[in-house]
Amino acid sequence: MTNILAIESSCDETSAAVISNGKVLNNIIASQSIHQKYGGVVPELASRAHQKNIVSVVHEAMESSKLLPHQLSAIAFTRGPGLMGSLMVGVSFAKGMALGLNIPLIEVDHMQAHVLAHFIPKQEGDSIFPEFPFLCLTVSGGHTQLVMVRNHIDFQILGQTQDDAAGEAFDKGAKMLGLPYPGGPLIDQYAKQGNPKRFTFSNTSMPGYDFSFSGIKTSLLYFLRDNVKTVPDFVQQNLNDICASYQHRIVEMLMTKLQKAAKYFAVRDIALAGGVAANSALRDALKMKGLENNWRVFIPDFQYCTDNAAMIAITAHYKYLRGEFCGLDVSPMASFDTPASILPTPK
Ligand code: KG4
Ligand code: ZN
Known about the structure:
Number of strands: 11
Structural class: alpha/beta
Helix content: 40-55%
Distance between the termini: 51 Å
Bound molecules: 5'-O-[(R)-(carboxyoxy)(hydroxy)phosphoryl]adenosine, zinc ion
Radius of gyration: 21 Å
Number of domains: 2
CATH topology of the largest domain: Nucleotidyltransferase, domain 5
Strand content: 15-25%
């Protein structure tokens, strides 16, 4: 019996999960609402909240697993990327526990874990997983990456954002519209009643499979500034259409690169990960393109899209099987050096 306790603390969710022989037993998440009033995650407040929550979150995961600490085989944790102060809390806690129990430590790359969330069985005996090789678009408040997944370990980053993440574009756009943080879900909600073709926002075109969301943000900023000058309540009068048009453009930018990669690499299985995977327009666009192109489309349950320890646990499970452990001298890494794609890019 292999039982692993996994801890995730890279940003603003403190989470712990226990996995037993590849079966996720629980996924306890304490979200931090403190950031709402600041309009974004405040790193120092995030690490303080992790420090406050971590003992009770781990305790709850252990209690609901019905396992005793001495029955654990290893402790896994997110090493990075993420906020340094937040990572430190999870890493230190994991080290202390592994040392106390004299069991191995497993470091997990948060981005790899977002992708491997697709391998968390939904129910007993579930075996409907993406087949290798597949493409995964990971889109969240902190990341936007297009990855070619060749097996559980062999990942190739085809492209990523060179500035803001897609979720940031949603949240910062929402902030300009006077909506509270995180504004992504609200843009999604207002957009449902809006016309996505009413306004056009320009964007920066990027080579290969990279993304850039700073251009569209600036485009929204100037658009609002110019219109509010002549019609002071322009935003209130046109909120649904602005949200629909802005969202439409972001989804289009993501889908363009995804389609280009799927075509070039002739991949049939396409997966979505990260908090922005909850966006209804993105989901619909992916499903529609899936039907058109004969793709099989995979979107994990929402609890496994946003930051969570279950995805750390499933990644740790595969690492445990390969005997990939780390020493107590391991330290968190706010970012990893990800080599740019060396693949030829189709014109
Ligand atoms: O994965 P996640 O929980 O945390 C990060 O690692 O960042 O993603 C959070 C992001 C936020 O930017 C939030 O606005 C965005 O996901 N998000 C959405 C939706 N739901 C969450 N963006 C657009 N539409 C949604 N429905
Ligand atoms: Zn994440």
